[in-house]
Amino acid sequence: MIAGGGYSSYSFAIWLEIKGEIMTEEPGNYATRFKSKGIGVSHSHKPVSVMLPPDMDAYVHALPNRSEWLRQAIREKIQRDKQQILESPPQ
Fold it and tell me: Stretch 40-67: mean pLDDT, rounded?
């Protein structure tokens, strides 16, 4: 095991050889599967996750770029909330 609890690709290849399954090539998405696609998004904090009702979940999962769509939806809601606060009379 390597630091962080994962296995290196070398140790995985050894495990495959022991099982009699020789790994001949890397998966097709090997170079891009861990690349960030979020513009201006850092990985130094935990992601936000939510459970959605089935109809909303199906809609969001059908989007071509759901992460960016969700970021934009959250951004718009925050802007509306801030605007409401500015426009509301002081209590």
Answer: 86
Closest Cα partner for 72 from 36, 33, 31, 40? Answer: 40
The pTM of the whole model exceeds 0.85: no
Contact 4, 34 (CB under 8 A): no
Cα–Cα nearest to 47, from 67, 65, 17, 77? 67
Which tokens go with 12? 């995985």
Contact criterion met (CB below 8 Å) for 38 and 71:
yes
Q: Which two tokens stand for residue 53?
A: 């009702």
Taking a C-beta distance cutoff of 8 angstroms, is the pair 7, 1 a contact?
A: yes
What are the distances in angstroms from CA 44 to CA 22, 38, 47, 80?
36, 13, 9, 27
